[in-house]
Amino acid sequence: MFFSQKVETDIQTDKQKDKQKDKQKDKQTDRQTDRQTDRQTDRQTDRQTDRQTDRQTDRQTDRQTDRQIDRQIDT
């Protein structure tokens, strides 16, 4: 009788350990996925911001150049 109780207890203990390991793995996977997603989102946001800034800078430069040319033509 005692032996079978011991075996049952060992089985339960092993199941608990396995559950904990699985939870830990899941947490790690979730963290990695979150980090990866965050990095991708950051890169996309950075690219988008860079493009917008470049466009604005280009427009501003074009306007200034146009004004200077207009002034030179006028004089």
Instruction: Look at the helices and sheets and give the structural class.
Output: mainly alpha
End-to-end distance, in Å? 111 Å
Order of helices and strands: H
SS strand fraction? under 5%
> How many β strands by DSSP?
0
Radius of gyration: 32 Å
Word description of this protein:
There is one protein chain. With 75 residues, the chain is mostly helical. 97% of the residues lie in helices and 0% in strands. It is built from one helix and no strands. The chain has one helix at residues 2-74. The N and C termini lie far apart (111 Å). The relative contact order is 0.05. Residues 1-75 are annotated as: Disordered. Residues 7-75 have a biased composition (Basic and acidic residues).
Question: What is the structure about, briefly put?
Answer:
The protein has 75 residues and is mainly alpha-helical.
Key words describing this protein structure:
75 residues; mainly alpha; 1 helix
Write the SSE topology.
Layout lengths: L1 H73 L1
